[in-house]
Amino acid sequence: MENETVSKNFIEQEIDRDLAEGVYNHVSTRFPPEPNGYLHIGHAKSILLNYGLAQEYNGTFHMRFDDTNPTKEKVEFVDSIKEDIRWLGADWKNHLYFASDYFNQMYEFAVKLIKKGKAYVCDLSPEEIREYRGTLTEPGKDSPYRNRSVKENLELFGAMKDGKYGDGEKVLRAKIDMASPNMNMRDPILYRVAHIPHHRTGDKWCIYPMYDFAHPLEDAIEGITHSICTLEFEDHRPLYDWVVKECEFEQPPRQIEFAKLYLTNVVTGKRYIKKLVEDHIVDGWDDPRLVSIAALRRRGFTPESIKMFIDMCGVSKSQSSVDYAMLDYCIREDLKLKRPRMLAVLDPIKLVIDNYPEDQVEYLDVPNNLENETLGSRKVPFGRELYIERNDFMEEPPKKYFRLFPGNEVRLMYAYFVKCVSFVKDEAGNVAEVHCTYDPETKSGGGFTGRKVKGTIHWVPVSDSIKAEVRLYENLVDEEKGVYNKEDGSLNLNPNSLTILKDCYVENNFDEEQSYDSFQFVRNGYFCIDAKDSKPDALVFNRIVPLKSSFKLPK
Q1: Which of 17, 344, 354, 407 is the most buried (most CB within 10 A)?
Q2: Annotation-wise, does 40 bind a ligand?
Q3: Count of domains in the chain?
Q4: Are 215 and 327 members of one domain?
Q5: Range of the structural domain that residue 398 is part of
Q6: Of 226, 258, 290, which one is at a domain's C-terminal end?
Q7: Pairing relationship of beta strands 498-506 and 466-473 according to DSSP bridges
Q8: pTM over 0.85, yes/no
Q9: How far apart, in Å, are the Cα atoms of 133 and each of 124, 174, 215, 254, 454?
Q10: For L-glutamine, which residues are the binding ones (predicted)?
């Protein structure tokens, strides 16, 4: 039992204590995104943490859209967030909510605070409110409207609701303490006027609650027990507690903060991603160079690999950055035993076996995964003319180059030994065709032991291969310069973040494959079928990750 306690993270320990002391008799968590953009890898940590806690304690998990700011919110983002969360495997069952579901109740709670003398209508402009707020070293000043009567405040707040004031003309503020050392407690704004249609309530409201007022109310109304959020909300916790206390909830929720997930050299800021999309630098919010969940899914990452990555990152109170290479490690680990290893040539030159019969085609047995026999095998046609990788032949090789060069012998994977006898160049002086002879006695699986070769290369048959487009992705950010330009705050973009190869050839065994299906291309890396641009008669593959990396697991 003692070991079990030690192995739990600090949030689990706090929940255990709350349950043992009778603070709560159940656990209810939530994920509350604002629908103003696509979710990214950092949100995946929050989703899986909140959902995992609900599962662990046999509790409930709520999916709630914090849609209190109609200026930035879209139905497109609502739909994408739902899809992302389902894909990650978090099931909210019948617990799907919107902050806008509670607008009537929030208004009534604001009225309650006014009646208690805990809120007032303020006429100061946004600039004046900032000026009156003070600084980290100096206390704020009371608003000249702070001591309005309850009756006047109720009338003014009702007039705000009825649309009698323009945007920014009046706000409702909490009456707490303008000298508080915590800036969030210096009479924060609870409601503002905004004559903007809402994607769910239309023109019904022209006042909207601020996040710091709405969020604790949403949690409390839904019966959330533990409001798990990131560390930037730690200074907001006193206000969270003030709201649920003054609104007199019998069993208020408890806020607990954890450290955000920071990945090295990636762009996660919605403002920056939005600009990349609008400037057509990336192909939408799901461009595979981004780390939005939609982008990772399109790139070929799996829910299992994301969960493995989040588990390896752990849950703590201290901020730290994680190397992107660890995410690559997780997808390799997830795919290596699951997916077939297919033949694909990305930079082809033709190889002709001069002594192989011209009209002969053999169908070779090729294992789908050498490390997982349960995936079975398939037939791949072999003939006189093949495509091989351009870098598998050199006219004048360096030392320790064991692939094809004049006079050298290699094994064609799953097939025969071939020996290079000549080559042909095109008008530009590039090698266009390599000629070999083969030894029929050396067929793979035939028991041949007469001699050995040091090199094995892969191939696809010219007559039965499929032409495809392959996209090779690198980091969107120039890793040497870092994410942001220190002079103007712009992004340091990597000009080589996308390489498109149009004339690739893959074996003819992709008939039943669908969008997002992934494979290992032998010797080239892990790839998946692109969900946006690939078609049955024009396949497009995204490289998920190369085969190898210098990354080593932290001890």
Answers
A1: 344
A2: yes
A3: 3
A4: no
A5: 350-455
A6: 258
A7: antiparallel
A8: yes
A9: 11, 13, 23, 27, 75
A10: 66, 211
